[in-house]
Amino acid sequence: MRRITRITTVGIASAALALSATACGKSSSEGGSASTSDSKATKAAIAYDIGGRGDQSFNDAAYAGLKKAEDELDVDGSEAEPSSGEGDADKVQRLTSLARAGNNPVIGVGFAYAPAIKKVAAQFPDTTFGIIDDTSVTGKNIANMVFNEEQGSYLAGVAAAKASKTGTVGFIGGVEVPLIKKFEAGFAQGVKDTNPKAKVLTQYLTQPPNFDGFAKPDLGKAAAEGQLDKGADVIYAAAGLAGSGSIEAASKAGKWAIGVDSDQYNQAGLAEYKDSILTSVTKDVSDSVYNLIKSVKDGKPQTGEVRYGLATDGVALADSNPKYKSMTDLIAAVDQAKKDIIDGKITVKTAP
Fold first, then answer.
1. Which of 14, 76, 80, 141 could form a disulfide with 7 if both were Cys (CB 3.0 to 4.6 A apart)?
2. Which ranges of the sequence are coiled-coil (predicted)?
């Protein structure tokens, strides 16, 4: 059965969003593929991050996991959109409403949900709460779904260095927070390890507590245009919905863009620019959502840190673009880098 209930809360307060810490949580169940369960139906909910569903990236990947659970596990799914200019109080209200409605699990898409999950999870001890991209908040009923973004970004750096003709590439971060710094660090390291003479231009769209850098495509477009003017011919943006603006700018300039989180070559909303999307650093947010829902349905809910890395295809580099598939030297370099990371020959930095 597929029954989506869209829940939107009205802003209560304009308190600044809390940043997540980068400390590791306790280890527990591992993510991975799972088979269909025949147990009783489950109600599950996801609360979207900034930009909401339709961002062609992070939130849409989470939705894909919920939809898969609906289709394969007979789950009734609910979605909750963020409000403009919201604070932690709005998130608390949203998660509380979803939990009271009987959803289990309730998943916060993004580190900004950490303060709210810490509060609401304590009030609903029999409900499993999932949070993506955060390990700062822990509890017996909290699953921290995290990724080695730096590893996938390293591969993007290798690809960018190989594809660049000018020797100058760009990185655009949505908001300058520790999570996005991981993307920057891996990308820059991959570029420099491949071509020590290459130049990496770096720009962040906003600084916290302003999170517009994850939500406004015009900001990404302007930043990309500036990097293109400085000679960049490959631009990698880790900026959520704002990243679509950088893809547009690169495409119109006849240069390469590298997508993030979802395989953006296959995103319908970016079809006009797909030929310019060389590749994308994918995070298996979809399976992380699906796996948590299934674990609850099976009566063995995941808790603690559930990590997805390169070795388990939790992060990867997409090869959907036929032009990418034709670049044999680039693919060979990426494949070798992937092997070296998995084998421990390359240690990827998590901070610039």
1. 80
2. none
**DSSP secondary structure string for all residues of 126-195:** TS-EEEES--SS--TTEEEEEE-HHHHHHHHHHHHHHH-SSSEEEEEEEE-SHHHHHHHHHHHHHHHHH-
pTM to 2 decimals?
A: 0.84
User: How buried is 221 (Cβ within 10 angstroms: 0-12 exposed, 13-18 middle, 19+ buried)?
Assistant: buried
Q: Are residues 83 and 160 in the same domain?
A: no
Q: Are residues 293 and 235 in the same domain?
A: no
Residue 319 domain-assigned (yes or no)? yes
Distance of CA 255 to the CA centre of its chain: 24
**DSSP annotation of 22:** -
Range of the domain at 270: 149-283+315-342
The whole-angstrom distance between residue 312's C-alpha and the CA centroid of its chain comes to 16
For the record, the structure tokens of 293 come out as 């829902």
* Domain assignment of residue 351, yes or no: no
CB 5 within 8 A of CB 79: yes
DSSP type of residue 309 = -
